[in-house]
Amino acid sequence: MTENAPSSPRTPQCLVRPGARTWRCTPPPAEVRDFHAALPGHSPTPLTELPRLAAELGVGRVFVKDESSRLGLPAFKALGASWAVHRVLAERAASGEERGPVTLVTATDGNHGRAVARTARLLGQRAHVFVPQGVHPRAVAAIAAERATVTEVAGAYDEAVRLAGEAAAARPDAVLVQDTAWAGYERIPGWIVEGYSTLCAEIDEQLTEGGHAAGPDLVAVPVGVGSLAQAVVTHYRSRPSGRAPALLSVEPEAAACVLESLGLGEPVSVSTGETTMAGLNCGTPSSIAWPFLRDGLDAAVAVTDLDSAVAADDLAALGVSSGPCGAASLAGVRVVLTGGGGEERRTALGLDASSVVVLLSTEGTAANPGAAGVHRTGGE
């Protein structure tokens, strides 16, 4: 598939950092996996091996974790939303608070808001979702179809988060269920991160079933505010012994807040631009994710919309439905391993012709209707 890979003379926006594989943290709670397993309609998502990508990238095996259908939605976000809402409602019941319906408030670039709205509807609760500029009208309509109140914001994602927080604080029956954290708002985002741990546990089991119990050598994860990446770092850096994989974050060039923060050594906000990777169009790393990203990521890279469009087309040709956010993981690995300076980065990450690479494809094509019609030329 090398004929499909984008060939750009630009210098990659990439950072490789030594020493991350020696950092360790505590593991996520084991009961999360059991909770998800008991949900109606739950089943593990596929881990699909793609030998043609392994040949292109010069590694031993490539697997794609296909999150195009998770709990009836076209992205992985239901894992975090369902666990966090479960914890919120259980805590309210235990405290003796009013038992009437709760309004779950959140801001979203699309998938998280729909997951919160779906969870609210299934549990007989209400949802109020704030949506920033740039989210496709069909994605907004999908949230509204879950019987959520939708407020469209004339601003970027960070502004939508601010307004959602204000709305939740103004009502005694409302709870903010946001997948990013800041000082003073950390517990619920932490539950969302815990919910994502099920995805990583499934990968372990599926690799073992596929004859590779040793685990991956490289995991590539798309990043918005960094909550999924925090879950991935927690999973792979909480093992007391054994081989630790290299972990790569991938962001849009238009919203590379984690890459910028890692380069400066402290969390910073960036001004975001337009990108087809709508779910990754975030300008500020989550406060609880940042220490994990700072200490546990081996590398970070920013990719273009064209990079992700090419990757999505190639995954589709191989039978994997992936939107531009999900395909960003393949686009990022291509830049890191085959772009200018790729051999040096490959060596720094400890990869060779026998290495096993796992790409997290976090959404299917149905999750991002605004990207339909974006082709290799970059046009619509």
Question: Can you summarize this structure?
Answer:
With 380 residues, the protein is an alpha/beta fold. Helices cover 39% and strands 14% of the residues. It has 13 helices and eleven strands.
Structure characterization notes:
By secondary structure, this protein is an alpha/beta fold. The chain contains 13 helices and eleven strands. It has helices at residues 31-37, 51-57, 78-95, 111-122, 137-144, 157-169, 187-209, 227-237, 257-264, 290-296, 305-317, 324-338, 342-348; strands at residues 13-16, 47-49, 61-66, 103-107, 126-131, 149-152, 174-176, 218-222, 246-252, 299-303, 356-361. Strands 1-10-9-8-11-3-2 form a seven-stranded mixed β-sheet, with helices on both faces. Strands 6-5-4-7 form a four-stranded parallel β-sheet, sandwiched between helices. β5 (126-131), α5 (137-144) and β6 form a beta-alpha-beta unit. α12 packs across α13 (342-348).
Tell me the layout of helices and strands.
Layout: E1 13-16, H1 31-37, E2 47-49, H2 51-57, E3 61-66, H3 78-95, E4 103-107, H4 111-122, E5 126-131, H5 137-144, E6 149-152, H6 157-169, E7 174-176, H7 187-209, E8 218-222, H8 227-237, E9 246-252, H9 257-264, H10 290-296, E10 299-303, H11 305-317, H12 324-338, H13 342-348, E11 356-361
Parallel strand pairs: 3-11, 4-5, 4-7, 5-6, 8-9, 8-11, 9-10
Antiparallel strand pairs: 1-10, 2-3
Helix pairs in contact: 3-4, 3-7, 4-5, 7-8, 8-10, 11-12, 12-13
